[in-house]
Design brief:
The protein is an all-alpha fold. It has 17 helices and 2 strands. About 45% of the residues are buried.
């Protein structure tokens, strides 16, 4: 005998995984919108309050729906206390948002998280592009200094932020399709790279999309047991730490009189000098500090770009940004998280997440999106169910 609608409603129970998934879609949407020119229609502080609603849902799951030991409970409290402290020190909400979702991902199917991210992200990005072309929001257009190269942002706050959305969405697609990756996907990555280079002049995102091709090609071959590829991909887990170390050492010891570092700085569009300035001006601390930045993103940033470009100061590199703004403790936590995710992927014989994090680490050298929920869903794999299902044991996806 079938149950009535009333009985089904009465018997319905919200699981922790479902609550998390709803909160993730909600907060990802809010975080994504923060990177668009839709922010011009709302009060600046509104998005933080909206994010807090989603974070409270995740914290409810963590402390009232999840089954956890005293050890796990204490671990969650300590991590949240550190993140709350760095939030107050840095006056920036980004890391706290990511941290809550990382902790809350226990018991949640990671593939579903990435699927939700990809579907919602495509809808939001396409919608933003259309609105910018219809004149509903602005399409900010920049030019590279000394050239006539036009750099469009398509409704996103800055051209490189638009390109970064393309990179991370492409990475999500490749993760979901890892075992079935083929030349059409690699060709699409090359076409996407050429497009963001032509339309946005986003050179480092172009590089990330191009590097994605051999990295995932080798990772997939390693998954299928090809000896040479397996040997190469087995070292993927070291990349986050290596890239972070090189980035921080080069920035700390940068000098315009050092020919090598000066050449690297020129290739990175001055980012190395800005990172060194951040070290010199703010120094290191355990729990971070407030950094005053003046970027070119958004309409106000465009005006500064046109009228007073010398005022620019922004820490683009995620590896430098986390160290200066959030402190040594959180920087170590972030690197440990990335290393564990990559190491598991390699030791499980999967290589999907390890391959993805190679590209993410490359992007983190020059861009600030590593720990931004509006861009990167891959850190959530630390506690999410990636390999609990047999279909995930060999390969991060079915």
């Amino acid at each position: 005998m079938s149950l009535s609608v009333a009985d089904r409603i009465k018997g319905f129970r919200i699981s922790g995984a479902l609550l998390y998934e709803v909160a993730f879609i909600y907060c990802f949407t809010v975080a994504f919108l923060q990177t668009t020119l839709f922010t011009a229609f709302f009060d600046k502080g509104l998005f933080r309050y909206l994010l807090m609603i989603g974070l409270l849902l995740v914290l409810f799951k963590v402390f009232f729906l999840d089954q956890q030991s005293i050890r796990t409970f204490c671990f969650n409290l300590i991590v949240l206390a550190i993140l709350a402290l760095t939030w107050r020190k840095a006056s920036d909400f980004t890391m706290l948002t990511m941290g809550v979702f990382v902790i809350g991902a226990r018991g949640v199917d990671f593939r579903r998280i990435v699927r939700d991210y990809f579907i919602v992200g495509i809808i939001l990005l396409v919608g933003t592009i259309l609105c910018s072309q219809l004149g509903i929001i602005k399409n900010l257009v920049y030019t590279r200094f000394g050239t006539n190269i036009r750099r469009q942002s398509f409704g996103i706050v800055y051209p490189t932020d638009f390109a970064a959305h393309v990179v991370y969405l492409f990475l999500a697609y490749c993760y979901l399709r890892f075992k079935r990756l083929s030349w059409p996907t690699y060709l699409a990555a090359i076409i996407a790279a050429l497009a963001v280079y032509k339309l946005c002049d986003a050179r480092f995102d172009t590089l990330a999309l191009l590097v994605l091709v051999p990295v995932l090609f080798i990772g997939k071959r390693a998954y299928y047991g090809h000896p040479n590829s397996y040997f190469i991909a087995s070292f993927y887990w070291t990349i986050p730490v290596i890239f972070a170390y090189i980035t921080q050492v080069c920035a700390y010891f940068y000098s315009p009189h050092n020919h090598l570092l000066s050449s690297i700085n020129k290739g990175l569009s001055g980012r190395l000098a800005l990172s060194h300035q951040a070290f010199s001006q703010y120094g290191l601390s355990l729990f971070g500090k407030h950094v005053i930045e003046h970027g070119w993103g958004n309409a106000s940033g465009l005006q500064m770009f046109l009228n007073n470009p010398g005022r620019y100061f922004y820490i683009d590199s995620s590896f430098i940004r986390v160290l200066i703004m959030y402190g040594i403790i959180v920087a170590l936590m972030l690197l440990v998280t990335m290393t564990i995710i990559s190491w598991r992927s390699v030791t499980k014989g999967s290589f999907a997440l390890a391959s993805i994090l190679v590209v993410v680490s490359l992007s983190a050298v020059v861009e600030q999106h590593l720990f931004d929920l509006g861009f990167d869903p891959f850190l959530l794999a630390l506690f999410a169910n990636v390999y609990s299902n047999q279909s995930f044991i060999k390969g991060d996806q079915s």
